[in-house]
Design a protein that fits this description.
- This protein has one domain: SGNH hydrolase (Rossmann fold, 3-Layer(aba) Sandwich).
- Helices cover 33% and strands 15% of the residues.
- Helix 1 crosses helix 7 and helix 3 packs across helix 5.
- The longest helix has 19 residues.
Length: 267
């Protein structure tokens, strides 16, 4: 069942001020989201380390969506994480599991439906309230364009969901919306599989990230944080050991082998 949405809390009066990270007081960052954030996590952590000392707690979870708390109950877990870490920044992404039609008032509804928009906007307000309860700044990255839109979300559905995320940032001063779809898009502004011949941005499922895509995603997430801190990230983070993380390896047809490499799967 979809979570019940309580009355919307009024937005904060002013955006939070981020403390400059030091060895004694590192920046505390909470990562939340689905398999996209799980893929991006090594790059995001490397990027954050480029602006100073940081403590990162990664609570991304495959299959996660705000609309399916029966899979992972964010209404309980997110306040718990915030209470335990007391983060300065929360970085979030959701999407493929939220563009699926869900029952709202007994009728299946999805992105683009005004009733869905009102319902989903309420979920976002509830989530933002939980994440900012102790004064954290929230960086919410939009859903990416999908390489298999018939399975993971049409362009229209993605645009409708991202419009709700942008509207959330308009309602809550502590929330910054980042156009992640644009950061990973091709020259036509849509889904891009290869950054260049043989270099994948996205895994063959058209949804998840390879190291090059994770780098672009992390850079987009880092930008508003660095701006709030008034710091310039060390550029060398993009070539760190994180690029060799196992999650970017070939795995059952979902990995990041070169598009020109022989298929290593047994025949």
């Amino acid at each position: 069942m979809p979570p019940t949405v309580p009355p919307t809390e009024p937005p904060s009066a002013a955006p939070p001020t981020l403390p400059s990270p030091t060895a004694a007081e590192p920046l505390r960052v909470l990562l939340l989201g689905d398999g996209i954030m799980w893929d991006a996590s090594p790059a995001v952590q490397a990027a954050l380390g480029a602006i100073g000392p940081v403590v990162v707690r990664d609570e991304s979870y495959w299959g996660f969506g705000l609309t399916r708390p029966e899979w992972r109950d964010w209404t309980t877990l997110w306040p718990q994480y915030v209470a335990e870490l007391d983060p300065d920044v929360v970085i979030v992404t959701v999407g493929p599991h939220d563009v699926v039609s869900r029952p709202v008032d007994g009728t299946a509804r999805g992105p683009g439906d005004p009733i869905w928009s009102n319902w989903y906007g309420g979920l976002l307000d509830q989530a933002a309230g939980a994440l900012t309860a102790r004064g954290a700044s929230v960086v919410w990255l939009g859903m990416l364009w999908q390489g298999q839109p018939e399975l993971h979300g049409s362009d229209a559905a993605v645009a409708a969901l991202n419009a709700e995320l942008a509207a959330l940032a308009e309602r809550h001063d502590a929330v910054t919306y980042v156009d992640a779809a644009g950061a990973l898009a091709g020259p036509d502004g849509r889904h891009l599989e290869l950054a260049e011949p043989g270099v994948r941005l996205r895994k063959p499922d058209g949804k998840h990230l390879c190291a090059e895509g994770a780098e672009r995603f992390a850079a987009a997430a880092l930008r508003p944080i660095a701006e709030q801190l008034g710091l310039e990230p060390e550029p060398t983070w993009t070539e760190g050991a994180w690029r060799a993380d196992d999650r970017y390896a070939w795995d059952g047809g979902e990995g990041c082998r070169s598009a020109t490499d022989p298929d290593p799967r047994p025949r």
